[in-house]
Write a structure and sequence with these properties.
With 185 residues, the protein is mostly helical. The chain folds into 2 domains: 2-54; 87-182, no CATH class. Helices cover 56% and strands 9% of the residues. The protein is built from 5 helices and 6 strands; from the N terminus they run ααααββββββα. The protein has helices spanning 2-14, 18-32, 37-54, 63-104, 163-177, and strands at residues 115-116, 121-122, 136-137, 142-143, 149-151, 158-162. The strands form 3 sheets. Strands 1-4 form a two-stranded antiparallel ribbon. It has a two-stranded antiparallel sheet with strand order 2-3. A hairpin with a 6-residue loop joins strand 5 and strand 6. The longest helix is centred in the middle third of the chain and has 42 residues, at 63-104. The radius of gyration is 37 Å and the shape is rod-shaped. It starts with a helix and ends in an 8-residue tail after the last helix.
Length: 185
């Protein structure tokens, strides 16, 4: 019967149930007592075998696993590089918008209004909405003051946002782009 219990403890170990096997070993030891040295030496050998099994090094990953992992790392790096390049480009556009404001709006001129944009200026992050298009102030948009809506040079459809709103959007997005935790991808 003791041999069968020892076999059962070994089988539990093979199935990965080390705690259960150790518990059974302790029960067998307490049942055998000091007079059964043959069994206790067999149990010690079995315990040593189980310890050696636990200490075996883990299997090395296959070449396929390594290749797949490397490919995934390269893909992540490419995506990060593309995101960084896109962020740099967007920041350039927004900085141009901020410079236009410095040169045309935040200057001490008595008659700065009406003021017109000389080219297209972006004032939002195109990655932050579903259309992937940023807000653009078209070239030739004329603004009569800071809070009025602009109109296109040809007089058609009024522009949606005021200069004050455009500046707030542009500077807010620039600030967020400089804080990595706030990026929208």
């Amino acid at each position: 019967m003791l041999k069968e219990l020892i076999k059962l403890a070994n089988e539990l170990d093979e199935r990965g149930l080390q705690k259960e096997a150790d518990t059974l070993d302790k029960m067998i030891k307490s049942a055998v007592g000091p007079g059964m040295d043959g069994f206790s030496s067999q149990m010690r050998m079995d315990q040593e075998k189980r310890k050696r099994e636990k200490m075996k090094p883990k299997e090395e990953p296959s070449l396929m696993d390594v290749a797949v992992g490397e490919e995934a790392n390269l893909k992540r790096q490419r995506e990060q590089d593309e995101s960084d390049a896109q962020k740099k480009e967007i920041m350039g556009w927004l900085q141009e918008t901020a410079k236009w404001f410095q040169d045309n709006i935040f200057v001490s001129k008595v008659d700065k209004f009406p003021v017109a944009t000389d080219k297209d200026y972006m004032y939002s992050d195109p990655r932050s909405n579903s259309t992937k298009k940023g807000y653009i102030v078209p070239a030739g948009t004329v603004f009569e003051d800071l809070d009025g809506h602009g109109t296109l040079r040809d007089g058609s459809s009024p522009f949606t946002h005021s200069l004050r709103t455009i500046y707030q959007y542009a500077t807010g997005v620039l600030k967020r782009l400089n804080e990595p935790s706030q990026l929208v991808n």
